[in-house]
What we know:
It comes from Microbispora corallina. This protein is α/β, with parallel strands linked by helices. Helices cover 27% and strands 21% of the residues. The chain has a single domain, classed as Phosphoglycerate mutase-like (Rossmann fold), CATH 3.40.50. A 6-stranded mixed β-sheet has the order 3-2-4-1-5-6, with helices on both faces. Helix 2 links the parallel strand 2 and strand 3.
Amino acid sequence: MSPSTRTLVVVRHAKAGHEPGLSDPERPLTGRGERDAREAGEHIRPLRPALVIASPSVRTRRTAELLGLDAPVEIERDIYEAFPDDLLDLLRRTDPGVGSLVLVGHNPGVHELVASLTGERVDGFPPGAFAVIELAGPWEEAGAGSGRLVRTYHP
């Protein structure tokens, strides 16, 4: 990987429950979701991400926490219910010094972001899934077809 290459890990939050009386943003992870998030973290940790950005929902914040990464976690409200273009705009604003970034969000936005960046069809992106994408240039140049899909993971 050259110094100008960026690594993006796009994570869909782990499995969440549906509890009566809770709004969608308040939905917690299930026991399985907690286990899946920890396991995903084992696969992501070797990439040594410098930053994690997550939606403000309970399930995405908890997923980010359970990944157990040695990186600051920033909560970004624009990730919740974001379209792929919104997520691309967010990526383009990433500090140029960040070489590896984890984005924890929601479907369909994260699934569509992976497809847009890589130009590849990714069959399914269930809760707890992630994709590792290499971008050849700076974050500000991230766009459709600018990435290479390195790996996908499904719990």
